[in-house]
Amino acid sequence: MSAFTEPAKKHLGQNFLHEHSVIDKIVLAVDPRLGDVIVEIGPGQGALTFPLLRKHGELTAIEFDRDLHAPLQAAAREHGQLHLIEGDVLGVDFTALAAMRGDANGQIRLVGNLPYNLSSPILFHALDHAPAVRDMHFMLQKEVVERMASGPGNKVYGRLSVMLQAYCAVTPLFTVPPGAFRPAPKVDSAVVRLVPKSTDQIKVVDRQVFANVVRAAFGQRRKTLRNALNSVADSGQIEAAGLRPDARAEQIEVGGFVQLANLLAHR
Ligand code: SAM
């Protein structure tokens, strides 16, 4: 009998993977190598944790649901060495974790079938610690992955696309149907790989200014840049950054936002 007796908790985004072919594809995509330090977000009942442990021997995992902690620890023993962090992933300092337990370069690799209600906060939290993260493999709603990877002119291109692409290479890997999970979510899912850029590849001078510009621009995405950005930049500055004040945010490349934010940062 399974050690896991509690029913899935909707408010914690618990949709447990059970389809072996999908689990195998994720493990193959992560491809853990000797010396890598893997950190799983939301191990749940171990669907990804145990195959990763069998392949890699050791893993750190962060799980919020206290009902899962003891059964997870017990069931993990036969597969490898699990270091379980009992708590909220948003409270985990990945930079400190990587400094303490990271690989030879002081980095960790993040993996997770994320709770969908927290996907954006988790993505932004990981971005805040990007230098400590070598790469990320996440299962998310397919629609979120499309937003993350889309470019100008696409109707789903927005704040998430620009913020992630400024700091990471975003590669959608494959889609996953609802039937791969128990209970089945209402939406299709997809696995995405994010690889943080190195410091010299990142062109953003001031992260806060950049975040403010992108938030303002897409806060009112139907408005022209001149109007949407009126609290952060005037038309002259928008033009000086090589952008047309009458354009809309959804038409601007990631590099355009970076240029404008850098100009404002140097003011
Ligand atoms: N990895 C398992 C799988 O693939 O079957 C479970 C995935 S389930 C979609 C998301 C997991 O994240 C659940 O185990 C849930 O309890 C956990 N979770 C939800 N909120 C969390 C948080 N703030 N911090 C850490 N884990 C969280």
Describe the structure in your own words.
- This protein is α/β, with parallel strands linked by helices and 267 residues long.
- The chain has two domains: 10-196, Rossmann fold (3-Layer(aba) Sandwich), CATH 3.40.50.150; 207-265, Orthogonal Bundle (Helicase, Ruva Protein, domain 3).
- The protein contains eleven helices and nine strands.
- The termini are far apart.
- Strands 4-3-2-5-6-9-7 form a seven-stranded mixed beta sheet, with helices on both faces. A two-stranded antiparallel ribbon has the order 1-8.
- S-adenosylmethionine (SAM) is lined by residues 12-17, 42-45, 47-48, 62-65, 88-90, 113, 115, 118.
Write the layout of secondary structure elements.
Layout (H helix, E strand, L loop, with lengths): L15 E2 L2 H11 L7 E4 L7 H8 L1 E6 L2 H11 L4 E6 L7 H8 L6 E6 L5 H10 L4 E9 H8 L9 H9 E9 L4 E2 L6 E8 L10 H13 L5 H4 L6 H6 L13 H12 L2
Parallel strand pairs: 2-3, 2-5, 3-4, 5-6
Antiparallel strand pairs: 1-8, 6-9, 7-9
Helix pairs in contact: 7-11, 8-11
Structure keywords:
19% strand, 11 helices, 2 domains, Rossmann fold, 9 strands, 7-stranded mixed beta sheet, Helicase, Ruva Protein, domain 3, elongated, two-stranded antiparallel ribbon, alpha/beta, 267 residues, binds S-adenosylmethionine
